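pasting for ref
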Amino acid sequence: MFFFLAACSKEEAATRGTTPGGTYAVDSSTTIDPEAAVEALGGKEFVFDVQTHYVNQDLAQPGGDWTSQFPWAACPAGVEAGDTRACFTVDAYFREVFARSDTTMAILSALPAMALEGLRPDDMVHAIDVATRLGCDDRVLMHGGAYPHHGPIEPALLAMTDVRDRYDIAAWKIYTMTPTAAHFYFDDHDPSRPQIGQTFIDHVREIGPPIICTHKGISSIVGSTPELASPSDIGPAAARNPDINFVVYHSGFEPGGGGGGAYDPDDPDPQGVDRLIRSMQDSGVEPNTNVYAELGGTWWFVMRDPDVAAHVLGKLLRYVGEDRVLWGTDSIWFGTPQDQIQALRTFEITAEYQERYGYPALTDELKAKIFGLNSAALYDIAVPDTACDIDPMEIEQIRANLPPARTYGPTTWSDAARIIKAHQGGYEL
């Protein structure tokens, strides 16, 4: 497939009298020789996926089908069971992310609202427990979900403190664009929106860890709008709070929403990842400081178009910084991340684009940074010497012997109604 994409991209560029900006470094021998294919697609990098998810639901009980919107909902297990939830269980997570890919470590990242069933803190702890039983100690980390705009802010901040006290979290994950009625900006620039951005940041500073991971971009998937998911507030907030690290999940990318070409500093209406770059530049935030660009979902979308991939990756590396681009895949929503890993291993930004736009060459050293070394530095973790070797059959055996994970929550209708009211009806897809 990579050979096919490279060939078609070259032919399409030739019709315009140009050359491609990106390509895949595979030749025809890799399409017929298994050893050549393994050599081209393989690697021994430290792969630290900082955006992964699963859904911890009891399949024996009826439940919502909100997971049906994701590509992996058509997985064989889900089709056979007639239940999309079967594609996103903890055993499916470990099989797809660890057994079927070269991922070494991963972070389980929180969902847009507490009302979404299946990935609360206890569910993340359950997955970490499974990882330990599989011999993958310390290979799965967890985010704390931050919801300061869901209901009154003071109880929400106290809930964050409680999460920090009870769990070993690596960072905070927040979706500022949902719910849309309470959407807020980190820099509080819009007086018509809740003025809680700096209050939230100050609370993160107080309780730690000083890392805020925020969804920006890919707005259609979360039922928002591009304006509400814009990273325009990142630069001002980062400039005002240099001791806080802002990890921009999806890097502001919008599928089909523009911003797939070269960055234009004079564009009055930047789109996609260009919005993040403009926000940093307007605020005087230099590359390789306290703003990070994460690739979850973004790389999955752009890797099918080598020119767009070259621009998006090249811009992030040049303007956000070669030490500040982080590997994430947003799996298990897309199934195994192995195709994304193999795509980056073989991807190259052409010499022409390097010269014309100032993009760096994707050397093995730079790819190693993207795959995991940048994230290891951010999270201050030692790089493991070996990968976590998981046998799929072992996953099945451990799952059979594990009790169902307990999720703590309301036990009466009145408790449930109180929580629903406090959180403004939850999350709308």
